[in-house]
Amino acid sequence: MTSRSPCFPIKKAVSLLLSGVVCLSFLAQPAAPAFAQDNTPTPEPASDPTEEVTTAPVFEPQPAAGPRFRAYQDIVLDYIHMVSQTEGWSLSGQTVLTTVNAGLTWHEASPPETIPDGSAAVPYATFLDKNTAWVIYAIDGKIDPAASVWSTVNGGLTWTQSIPLNHQAYGDKLWAEFNALDANTLWMMVRGMYVGAGTHYNHNLFRSLDGGLTWEFLPSEFSDDYTGMDFADVLFGVRTLQTARMYAPSPPAYEITEDGGATWQLFELPPPPLDPNLFDHYPNCETYQPVALTNESYRMIVACFDNFDPPQRYEGYFYSSRNGGKTWLFGKLPQQSRPDTAQLAYFDTENVFLLGKHSFQSSDNGMKWSYLKVVNWDGQFSFPDPQHGFAIARLMGGVSLVKTTDRAATWKIVLPRVVR
Question: Each residue of 164-174: pLDDT tens digit?
Answer without folding.
Answer: 999 999 999 99
